[in-house]
């Protein structure tokens, strides 16, 4: 769980840093808002994919543990 929290904190900081950098860029407001929106969507997709991968790994490990415990009780 500690790794997931670090990953989320890192991603949150990266998104915040990117948003601040875009806000200080010398562009029109509409272009800046579009870039921020696009980056937030990219970050959300990446985070969703990462969380789904993590869930799959946890489920796999849980199934392995369940099978090992079932085998141990039958022996």
Task: List the main descriptive attributes of the protein structure presented here.
75 residues; mainly alpha
Question: Could you characterize the architecture of this molecule?
Answer:
The protein is mainly alpha-helical. Helix content is 91%, strand content 0%. The protein has helices at 2-23, 29-74. α1 (2-23) packs antiparallel against α2. The protein is rod-shaped and about 70 Å long.
Report the radius of gyration as a whole number of Å: 20 Å
**What is the overall silhouette?**
rod-shaped
**Largest sheet, described in full?**
none
Residues in β-strands, percent: under 5%
Number of strands: 0
Spell the H/E element sequence. Answer: HH
Helix content: over 70%
Low-confidence stretches: none
Q: Give the mean pLDDT.
A: 82
Distance between the termini: 33 Å
- Number of helices in the DSSP assignment: 2
Classify the secondary structure makeup into a structural class. mainly alpha
State the gist of this model.
Helix content is 91%, strand content 0%. The protein has helices spanning 2-23, 29-74.
Task: Break the fold down into its secondary structure elements and pairings.
Blueprint: H1 2-23, H2 29-74
């Amino acid at each position: 769980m500690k790794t997931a929290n670090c990953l989320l904190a890192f991603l949150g900081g990266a998104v915040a840093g990117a948003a601040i950098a875009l806000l200080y860029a010398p562009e029109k407001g509409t272009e800046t808002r579009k870039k921020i929106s696009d980056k937030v969507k990219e970050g959300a997709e990446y985070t969703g994919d990462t969380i789904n991968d993590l869930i799959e790994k946890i489920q796999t490990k849980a199934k392995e543990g369940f099978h090992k415990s079932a085998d141990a009780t039958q022996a």
